[in-house]
Amino acid sequence: MTVIATDAHEALDGLLHDSMTIAVGGFGLCGNPFDLVEAVRDAGVRDLTIVSNNLGVDGQGLGLLLENDQVSRVLASYVGENRLFAQRYLDGDLEVEFVPQGTLAERLRAGGAGIPAFWTPTGVGTPVAEGKPVAEFDGRPCVQERAIIADLGLVHAHRADRYGNLVYRYTARNFNPLVAAAGRVCVVETEHLSDAPLDPDAVVTPGIYTHRLVVARARDKPIEQRTVRPVVAGPPDPAVTGGAS
Question: Region Disordered: what ranges (predicted)?
């Protein structure tokens, strides 16, 4: 049964310890479980292995755990948006396993599905394949990738019901359903909590995966790089007005 907590700290109570592996949903800052990440920071646990597409940006998201020196190892697809992440990696004081994005998604999916390993041509002949078995299938070399099973999965959902069923919003879905299934324990923050059950046809993550649930605090959602067209004064754009003068 899903336990509903009053805040993120209560949701993580008794689950955190040093040297654990935490998988975290999100893509950049989109779909990040910000409240739960901040609660991990406040708990002060150390020597963490973080599995996530990337580590947010400096000062936000998973970047907070880096700044608090709580992370010793990262499995991620890229480091480009976080200067501290990149610098610590280049300085050799942070262990990083780069995982191609599709491979990372499949490793998490496999962990949630109980599949111990799979073969993929992605990464063959590159540092990604170093130390891993390589076999040929239909004349094509493939590298063996192991599933990821985390001690804890942290997830952000758009809507949830009291049974732990989850729905995500647009691209904020990203890695969240995979993380929900790959964690031995899954803790979810949701923007909206419904007393009534969600429409079964709309549910993405069934409540069987959700162990603890908390309503996320209202906050402005950060964007890594906000880019808009400059406002140019002039006559109405026919493409917008439908040709009306």
Answer: 226-245
- Length of the chain (residues): 245
CA 2 to chain centre: 21
Q: Domain range holding 48? A: 3-215
Specify if 223 maps to a domain: no
Mean pLDDT of 92-115: 96
Q: Are the C-beta atoms of 8 and 35 separated by less than 8 Å?
A: yes
Highest mean pLDDT among 54-58, 139-143, 231-235 belongs to: 139-143
Give the per-residue pLDDT at 244. 47
| Contact between 163 and 34 (Cβ < 8 Å) | no
pTM: 0.90
Q: 126 is written with which tokens? A: 């590159």
Give the pLDDT band of residue 78 (cuts 50, 70, 90): confident
The total number of structural domains that make up the chain = 1
Residue 68 belongs to some domain of the structure? yes
Q: Is 220 within a domain? A: no
The SS3 of residue 75 is strand
Whole-angstrom distance, CA of residue 39 vs CA of residue 41: 5
